[in-house]
Amino acid sequence: MQQVSLTGEKAKNLEQTREARSQQRRLLSAFEVDSDLLKFNQLKFRKKQLKFARSGIHDWGLFAMEDIAADEMVIEYVGQRIRPLIADIREKQYETIGIGSSYLFRIDSESIIDATKCGNLARFINHSCNPNCYAKIITVDGVKKIVIYSKQPIAVNEEITYDYKFPIEEDKISCLCGTPNCRGTLN
């Protein structure tokens, strides 16, 4: 790996930026408030470096391109907000036209995010029975959003996973996560 040496002014600016971020974290931690809104705003301005690539779990997956600490927001799951009735229709349409995977994520009994055709990289996150992340619904300016948080430290090139927590159904979907404590099915 080639090392880059910074000139005096650039090194000074970089150090000031690091110090400012460090000071901001210290100030925020002084308030004993676990504010999802503050974290969400930080996520918007400091996006995690992620990539999608071939996965050992299933087709494509999402991978960290930087170290991610525990309990950090990793990515928001975005797509089109639809009602359950529309989600049921779309799921059947996707099956009919041969889309093997649909990316429907339930927020609550009234809203589902469909990332199948208009989502972001979060839709490539695979299920694991022993995940390194979890999904959480947060409310920002009166709108519910799905955010993926890290459960534990995640290393560079490690695949991002979470438990899909599908409801138990008669028709089982095989789990491919391969973890020692794999349940065998997603539902």
UniProtKB/TrEMBL annotation:
PROSITE patterns (UniProt xref): POST_SET, SET
Enzyme class, broadest EC rank: transferase
Gene Ontology annotations of biological process type: methylation
Location of this chain's protein in the cell: Nucleus
Highest taxon above the source species: Eukaryota
Annotated Gene Ontology cellular component terms: Set1C/COMPASS complex
SUPFAM superfamilies: SET domain
EC number of the protein: 2.1.1.354
Catalytic activity: N(6),N(6)-dimethyl-L-lysyl(4)-[histone H3] + S-adenosyl-L-methionine = N(6),N(6),N(6)-trimethyl-L-lysyl(4)-[histone H3] + S-adenosyl-L-homocysteine + H(+); N(6)-methyl-L-lysyl(4)-[histone H3] + S-adenosyl-L-methionine = N(6),N(6)-dimethyl-L-lysyl(4)-[histone H3] + S-adenosyl-L-homocysteine + H(+); L-lysyl(4)-[histone H3] + 3 S-adenosyl-L-methionine = N(6),N(6),N(6)-trimethyl-L-lysyl(4)-[histone H3] + 3 S-adenosyl-L-homocysteine + 3 H(+)
Statement: the UniProt record of this protein carries the keyword S-adenosyl-L-methionine: yes
UniProt name for this protein: [histone H3]-lysine(4) N-trimethyltransferase
